[in-house]
Amino acid sequence: MKHITYRNFKESTRHLFRIYAMIPFSILIVLFLAFTIVNGRMNLTQKTTEAAQSISQTISGVYRQYEEEIQRMAASPTVIHYVSSHLGSEQVYSEFYDFNNRQKVKSIFHIVNTDGVFLASSAPPDVLYSNFAFGNLIHRIDQRPGDTLTEMNSFRYSHDRDTSYTFGQAIVKDNETIGYIIYQLYEADMQKVIFKQNNEIAMITDEHNTIIATTSNVTKGGLNKFSPKLDGSGHVLLNEGKYYMYAKRIPGTPIQVVTLNSYKSEQYTYFTVSLFVLAAGLLLWVLIEFLANKMSARNSESIDKLIHALEQLREGNFNGYVDIQTNDEFQILGNEYNVMLDRLKELIEKNKELSELRTIIEVKQLQSQFHPHFIFNVLETLRYAIKIDANQAQEIVLILSRLLRYSIGPDRSVQLKNDMNYVRDYLKLQQIRFNDRLEYRVNVAEETLDVYVPKLLLQPIIENAIKYGYENQSKVLIEINIYTSTGKLLLEVRDNGQGMSAQRLQEVNHILQSQTNTTQHIGLYNVHRRLVLLYGEESGIQIDSAEGRGTCVALTIPYEWSGYHV
């Protein structure tokens, strides 16, 4: 049999504590990073949107004020009188400057007659006399004398003062156009209005995506158009950078506000968060190591005593009692172990006294081989379960206590229903050990419950099915069927394991038929030998198995004998 090296309980406790302490921390880190990413994106989106909303509100106010003012001035009797008579220029200029001084976005003011002569202007108009673009502007105003013309155009005046947006309207008297009034808004003032401290780039464009004003020239494309490149996620690519963009059209106007913010600010946030997570992780790891050592040292003392006692029992020392005074499940387990040890010693003494009864002695010896191995497996399971789930560990201890009480009882035969209660407890412990990798079904005919059978008859069969069922697969199904047929009591244990080859099945049958067993495979042999000794050669074990379809072990007992104590 291959020797298995087990990790000691102290190290296992320390290892499990590390794992289960790091799991919630890892989840917390993932959630924290996810929150940081989502929050960063939300902040970027929010500040971009808020900037666009704020700029939109301001620009909308500017647009409405100029639209209302140019309509008022075009219809003003003072302006009409001035264009007609060239008198009263002081009042016209006074009204313009009074309005212009109140505005966030200042403008240049012109009044031009139908011959193209500048009658009034707040800036030297010399550069405009021969300007073809300005002539076209006058022509477009003349085409729609009842409407206000608004459009993006750029004119340069002295001292490098540029205008970027124009409001124009015809001056009409007696249904006849007598002149034109024009307001040209300064580009620098427009830039000041759209600048927001928490926003990187802002611009305003007309309905043709022509840039009226912008806080960064990287947005300007050919013909002063804003034509950004987009990646697959819809992000704007500018100057080798990736930007989030929000566009808002101002209702009732041809103007659109566009705001952009770079994703580079998020990268700095991620870097800062990563440094924080690293520092917190190192600090937490030191704390976990300290607590793991403290906990493992405290919890391993009781289990170490039990393991040491079992090792002494394996060596044949029946005086290795366990002294555990912890007032918990380990103390109960230690007391039950001591009781079991006393019962084992009593059984040995009885076997010595009944040495002449060879058959009974052999049956008791075969039966006694089960207990130490079974208890050792359960304790190994308990070692790994005790840190994972305290409630489950308590359940294991209580089930094991019932099994120990049952197994150390003096009866050699018991009613089948009692032995099946033991089997269910045994399977429950194994299921706790293997979780959802083990499934079992128990079907017992009603008429068989009160019959007597040898105690612990099915445990080695079930243990064998579990042991070999997991070879080359991760899940095992154990099915137990008990019924009567032609005067015999049949107990079947089926599994869905890999099964045995024909050669292996022949070897196992040969072992079962031998009078002595010199191999290490004693489980099936002991059960078969007990049945033969108690009920004769017609009883025993039959095995049906084939590769790939599992194994069925059937135990046969004469039904008329099984109703009595044996």
From TrEMBL:
It comes from the Bacteria. SUPFAM superfamilies: ATPase domain of HSP90 chaperone/DNA topoisomerase II/histidine kinase, HAMP domain-like. The keyword Ribosomal protein does not apply. CDD domains: HAMP. Residues 337-364 form a coiled coil. It catalyses: ATP + protein L-histidine = ADP + protein N-phospho-L-histidine. It holds the Pfam family His_kinase. It is an enzyme of class 2 (transferase). The keyword Lipid biosynthesis does not apply. The chain crosses the membrane at residues 20-38, 268-288. Residues 457-561 form the Histidine kinase domain. GO terms for molecular function: kinase activity. Its main location: membrane. Residues 297-349 form the HAMP domain. Keywords: ATP-binding, Cell membrane, Coiled coil, Kinase, Membrane, Nucleotide-binding, Phosphoprotein, Transferase, Transmembrane, Transmembrane helix, Two-component regulatory system. Its EC number is 2.7.13.3. It is found in: Cell membrane. It is a multi-pass membrane protein. This is histidine kinase. The lineage of its organism: Bacteria, Bacillati, Bacillota, Bacilli, Bacillales.
